[in-house]
DNA sequence: CATGAATGAGTCTTCATTCAT
DNA sequence: TATGAATGAAGACTCATTCAT
């Protein structure tokens, strides 16, 4: 008996993300993914039940990677602001290091797929964000608003900004990033 | 000869938006659109060169509708803050009145299609936003930041918030909207 | 009541021949013909029952034109050889003056369409050829062979030769034509 | 994996030729070919890139078969006349044994397809004919004419004659064949 | 584990034709 | 007479998926 060939699995994962970013959802077929991954289309079905399952697993893997990167060095011993800044800087690093992952996620999140998948479960992965905001509210450092609102005003604008930069092929410099962090903080601070 | 039937054109437009929102890009086929619009698939090709052209025209039409709604009552005689609030409230009205249009746009904007279409031209439709922010900066009311940044911190969070509400089937109440507007202003004011 | 518009009829006729020569049978559609003829597809159905009828009428018209050209100045007062040479020279003139007609005919004649159309009737148009050969045989000037055979050895080679020239974009010069006529005569003379 | 099924390939080949001869170019569709070959339409695309590629490969295969048959027993040790007669008799055998192949070729050669395919390369397959004629001219046995002309007067009439017979459902008897060979020789001999 | 072969169902698109004007 | 609109049927081709090896 032979073992799971992680090279192939990885190649399929990469090909999927690349193609969806390059040509979009509706033009990305299993056979194109297979070709890009230098693998037979049938091989994909060894590791994934069907096309949607492939997308879902790809999505989960990226989301995992993202939360992993996002919360490095973020723990309860730090102040709310320290955690806030660390999370944002980690997020920016993630987006810039794994552009394709990020754009893939954006595309998925704006499609009807998440509805189909009932995605509450993944929320748990982002627990540290909720905790940080809750701590901030409790300590009266942050505005007493719904946490989704705090996210929408502090984290999402950063993502949006980077998205624009990625699409224009430009880079966000340190000064701009500092400004952005300041604006995020201004928007949510009490 | 028969005359151009605008009902058919409209039905195709509606069906396209509905289906893309319901089942997503890759599952929306011309024949499904035709069926939903109670029209022959061939009829679609009378009014649209091909599938992508159909999407593009649909996109343009919605974008037009959106800018039309967004700037009602917004003119240079108003203060920066008045214009700011009006635009945001118009935008919120648009999103809530034409949920499907909004979600369609989000889906398009996060796909690789816009890159293909080279969309700078449509920026002109949103001139009033740029003017408002430029005026605000000049009058030292607003932060001296890149305008994309101001947009990312004041307008997009609102969209994001509403997106969440739409997907959850909840409504944004007046109090929440007032808070949001305040947060937007806090984020960008000098 | 309006009258038959011969310009339109002619434009359709021309467009049909052009397209069939350029892109072939299977790629020539009514709508392409209509576009080339600057006419609505529906207009074609005023003058022709259906697509096959269009082809058939086009074929007949060309065949008529061809026999008309081929027998100019050919009558019983001339000797067999005179008639023979005249017919061949007329035929060469026809092919060179109306290349498209000729190539269209060749294409039709090598398709299964003639079988469908039962084309004995058009043979009568080429009566003078048969008479000439019959006279030649009776006068023991020509070989006592089946007339189709005499045609195959005297007239068809000329057509074949010109076909090659047409496809290469070259011209048959007078010397070559004289040689060809000599070879034709050698092949069939007693 | 499953192995390449040459029966399927052959069935597709046969079906293509049959249909093109029976109903012509424009009515022969991939799905009809598939049905006739008892194969899924998709299977055709495993072996052929597209419809035109299918036609082209079919054409090449037939042309190969034809040259193979045509030059059996034809070599330089034979006299020019011996080679001439052998080639013609082989050709006649080929046409009568593989009527469908022959008619298919005629139909292709009179369509615009060959122009698209730039067919000089296949000329090399028919080298022995050119060599025979060149030898004949050098030995002053044959007329000093362009070789295409010699072909047009000696070989093509035979093809034409057989075409007529095939379409009428009649057979060329030995006496007729002998006459034809004599006429061919008369036309080209010095 | 891996894959080329195979296919029914589906894709987008064009077809020949008719109809209302 | 002339034609844009309309469409069911069919076109070529690709899809996601399965199977035999």
UniProtKB/TrEMBL annotation, chains A, B, C, D:
UniProt protein name: TetR/AcrR family transcriptional regulator
Tell me what organism the protein belongs to: Paenibacillus xylanilyticus
**Listed Gene3D superfamilies:** Tetracycline Repressor, domain 2 (1.10.357.10)
User: Cross-referenced Pfam families, in alphabetical order?
Assistant: TetR_HI_0893_C, TetR_N
Give the source's domain of life in one word: Bacteria
Q: Which UniProt keywords apply?
A: DNA-binding
Against PROSITE patterns, the record matches this protein to: HTH_TETR_2
Lineage, uppermost ranks: Bacteria, Bacillati, Bacillota, Bacilli, Bacillales
Span of domain HTH tetR-type: 6-66
Q: Does the keyword Magnesium apply?
A: no
| Binding region for DNA | 29-48
Q: What's a Gene Ontology MF term here?
A: DNA binding
């Amino acid at each position: 008996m032979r073992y799971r060939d992680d090279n192939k699995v990885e190649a399929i994962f990469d090909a999927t993300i690349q193609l969806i970013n390059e040509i979009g959802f509706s033009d990305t077929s299993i056979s194109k993914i297979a070709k890009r991954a230098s693998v037979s289309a049938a091989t994909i079905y060894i590791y994934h039940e069907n096309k949607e399952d492939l997308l879902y697993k790809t999505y989960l893997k990226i989301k995992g990677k993202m939360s992993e990167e996002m919360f490095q060095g973020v723990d309860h011993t730090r102040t709310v602001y320290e955690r806030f800044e660390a999370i944002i800087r980690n997020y920016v690093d993630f987006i810039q290091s794994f552009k394709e992952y990020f754009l893939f996620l954006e595309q998925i999140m704006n499609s009807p797929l998440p509805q189909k998948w009932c995605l509450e479960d993944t929320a748990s992965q982002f627990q540290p964000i909720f905790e940080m905001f809750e701590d901030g509210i409790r300590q009266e450092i942050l505005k007493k608003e719904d946490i989704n609102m705090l996210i929408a005003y502090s984290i999402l604008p950063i993502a949006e900004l980077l998205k624009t930069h990625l699409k224009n092929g430009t880079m966000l410099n340190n000064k701009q990033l500092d400004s952005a962090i300041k604006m995020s903080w201004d928007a949510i601070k009490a």
